[in-house]
Amino acid sequence: MVEASFPIVSFQNFISGSEAEKRAVAQELYNAFHTYGWIYLKDFGISADEIDEMFAASKKYFDRPLDHKMKQTLSDAETNQGYTPDGAEANGGTDHKECYEHRRFKNELCPTDEEMAGFKAFLDAFYQKCFNLSVDVLKALALIMNLDLDYFTSALQKADPQLRLLHYMPIQRSIVESEGHARIIPHTDFGLCTILFQDQVGGLEVDPFHTDEFVPATPIRGTCVINVADLLQRLSNDRLRSTMHRVTSPKLSEDQLSKIDADGMLPARYSTAFFVHPSADVDIEPIVVDGEKGAKYEKVNAGEWRTMNTAKNYSNLLGAMKAWILKRYMLLGIKIISYEFCPEMHPKFVCLIGNRTVHLHGIFVNGNKSGTTLRQPRK
């Protein structure tokens, strides 16, 4: 398997350089996001030591007893904060990991100082650094796309992105070698962009050209990985690419494998992702430039988009998804709504509203599947 050769870009000159230097960095970012949808970033204002400290805090959180973590379980798709146990995500399959979601405004399900001294304060500070980085990256893209510098960041004024701590538990070699195994199944992210920090275990793989050929995005100490997500692809009218990716178990050398028997355990993996989402009241509409035939996507509301996709991804939030749909259509004056569960498309639903069929993975309207789709189909 060939390793991904994504560009490694220093962000230092965008932070403190001249206007010409800022534009040069912005051009590198744009080129990478247009071609691959991914980039390694270094010199971005968060040190390697701070990243190590974040991983130490993450490990300490996940090392707590399961019953303690379960008391703070994520249960609300709109708030989307708290703990998610192994196997609860169901994004078209089962992912083998546990997570903790930390937010900008609402963190009622964060351990208290009595439970984990300094944990919340540290995550709040790390969160803010990630938020500041996301603002600068979006300003860089606006600069090179000849937009107002705050074109994208104006959508973040009341935004509540999520900082996600992830723990992939040690796993038996026999499971890893079974057909179809994945720690996270192939997917795209559904926000604006994602900032990812990896430990040195590895396992992240990317399909940069949508050819179903995944290549490793090998961890590089002192860098983060930034990828375009679905809403930024929509906003850019496909000029920026939201790329399929997955997490597999670490690829070990033959020598390493020879020292692990069939029932032996492969190492745990930790990563941290910062998912950048717009403010809930923002409508997302493609930017159409001269020479383009028109918008490739319909306008969507960012808050509704996020709640729908969050609920869809969690097996324990399917009921919440139903409630959200009902609330939405009641607000539109539609008082009668029935649900039909679609087993072959679990965990998605088909809602029958009069003669209108709405499929929530890519919303099809006008009663047929050739209608307008809310989300780009995955290929």
Automatic annotation (TrEMBL):
It holds the Pfam family 2OG-FeII_Oxy. Keywords: Iron, Metal-binding, Oxidoreductase. Residues 76-95 are annotated as: Disordered. It comes from the Eukaryota. InterPro entries: DIOX_N, IPNS-like_FE2OG_OXY, IPNS-like_sf, Iron_ascorbate_oxido_reductase, Oxoglu/Fe-dep_dioxygenase_dom. Signal peptide: none annotated. Residues 158-278 form the Fe2OG dioxygenase domain. GO terms for molecular function: metal ion binding; oxidoreductase activity. GO terms for biological process: small molecule biosynthetic process. Belongs to the iron/ascorbate-dependent oxidoreductase family. This is Fe2OG dioxygenase domain-containing protein. It comes from Cadophora malorum. The lineage of its organism: Eukaryota, Fungi, Dikarya, Ascomycota, Pezizomycotina.
